Every structure is written in structure tokens, then in C-alpha cells.
Backbone:
């Protein structure tokens, strides 16, 4: 079966298909410590609401052997989620949060095309770099990103990734409502 591929910006109506791919990636990754918590509505709100906090491109496979209109619309086989972030020292950074291509469509250049597109978006926004996190056990992803001359800054510069998660985040926010911390601090923001 011959496929051609389309890479395009995601639309709100793609969120259901993106979520299915997120679940597929979670199932294949088999990491018991990481659970998909997002719903389709979360993705729609967070990516396409009044104040989107992520952006996404998707890859569709179109079966050239089938010319019906439905087939022409394509099947979603991959997604990339990215955001623009900022380093006080070096400026804009494009952060590639997640990238997944269905196994049947790997090895055809689609993953590379997605990375190149995100890199281009970053360069157009004036970003100085592209960052991504991956688990140390994901050797395939490591080799994939090595091919783009990515440098492991945790190895090279000794960086650690710190994360305040779940209830601890709301506890931090709630700390400001405790009377004893009002002290001499006035917030104007
Ligand atoms: C990693 C992933 C996105 C690669 O997608 P893909 O469409 O198969 O990659 P491509 O076909 O575009 O390959 C691009 C290059 O990477 C290399 N590459 C791809 N997968 C590789 C692997 N498993 N091991 C070594 N090299 C690999 C290819 O040989 C190719 O090299 P070339 O440009 O010299 O020909 C895909 O395997 C995937 O979805 N993996 C699971 C999710 C994941 O690990 N995401 C990344 C971390 S969030």
C-alpha cells in the first residue's frame, strides 16, 4: 500500500484523533509512572481556546490507492506538540514536548519532517534553540535526535529537570493565602 503524507497545523476537531495517538504512544511506551490525564476537551481548551498554551502539527497518511473523498481526507498517523518558551539568558527556545509516529508509518521520513517543521517555526520566531525531554531508556529517540546534532545538556552541563507536581503545585499557590506569609510583601501582579 503506497501512502503519501501531509503535515499540517492541528485544528480543534483533530483533538480526538490526537488523544487516541497519545494513548497509543502511552501504551507502546509502557511506563507505569506516566499516565495520560488529558481529555479531548483539555486538548481543545489548552491548544485552541482564547489563550492557547500549546501548538501542534499533525501528520496524515493518504492512501494513493483509494481515491474516495474520505480517503483523501487522510488518517492521522502522528503528532507533535510544541510551545515557545524563553531563557532569560539566551532568548526564545522552542520546546518540543511530544512527537509520535505510528509504528506502521515509521522509517519514511515523517518524524524528521515534523521535527524540521517545528525547528522552522522556532527559527521564524527568532528562537535560539529547540529543546526536548526524553527518557534515558528511549534509545531509539536518542538516536533519532542525535541525527539532528542534538546535545544532551544534562550530560554536558549537568542540568537536572525539576518538576513540582500535582497537589504540591496548588499547595504552593495556597501558601500565598496563608495570613502569616503576608508580612511586608505586597503583590501588584
Ligand atoms: C522517534 C520517531 C518519532 C521517529 O519517527 P520516524 O518517522 O520513524 O523517523 P524518520 O523516518 O523521519 O527518520 C529520520 C531519521 O532518524 C533515523 N531514525 C528513526 N528512527 C530511528 C531509530 N529507532 N533508531 C535509529 N535511528 C532512527 C532514521 O534512520 C532517519 O535517519 P536519516 O535521516 O539519516 O535517514 C518514532 O520512532 C516514534 O514515534 N517513536 C515513539 C515516540 C518517541 O520516542 N518520540 C520521541 C521522544 S518524545
Residues:
Amino acid at each position: 500500500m503506497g501512502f503519501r503524507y501531509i503535515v499540517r497545523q492541528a485544528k480543534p476537531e483533530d483533538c480526538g484523533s490526537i488523544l487516541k495517538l497519545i494513548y497509543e504512544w502511552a501504551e507502546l511506551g509502557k511506563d507505569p509512572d506516566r499516565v495520560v490525564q488529558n481529555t479531548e476537551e483539555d486538548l481543545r481548551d489548552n491548544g485552541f481556546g482564547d489563550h492557547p498554551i500549546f501548538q501542534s502539527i499533525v501528520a496524515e497518511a493518504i492512501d494513493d490507492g483509494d481515491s474516495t473523498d474520505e480517503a483523501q481526507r487522510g488518517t492521522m498517523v502522528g503528532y507533535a506538540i510544541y510551545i515557545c518558551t524563553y531563557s532569560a539568558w539566551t532568548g526564545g527556545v522552542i520546546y518540543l514536548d511530544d512527537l509520535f509516529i505510528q509504528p506502521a508509518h515509521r522509517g519514511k521520513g515523517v518524524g524528521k519532517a515534523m521535527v524540521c517543521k517545528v525547528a522552522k517555526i522556532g527559527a521564524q520566531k527568532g528562537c535560539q534553540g529547540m529543546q526536548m525531554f526524553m527518557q534515558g531508556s528511549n534509545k531509539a529517540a536518542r538516536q533519532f535526535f542525535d541525527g539532528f546534532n542534538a546535545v544532551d545538556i544534562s550530560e554536558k552541563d549537568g542540568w537536572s529537570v525539576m518538576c513540582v507536581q500535582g497537589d504540591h503545585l496548588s499547595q504552593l499557590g495556597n501558601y500565598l493565602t496563608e495570613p502569616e506569609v503576608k508580612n511586608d510583601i505586597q503583590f501588584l501582579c
About this structure: The two ends are 57 Å apart (CA to CA). Residues 82 and 97 are 5 Å apart (CA to CA). DSSP finds seven helices and five strands in the chain.
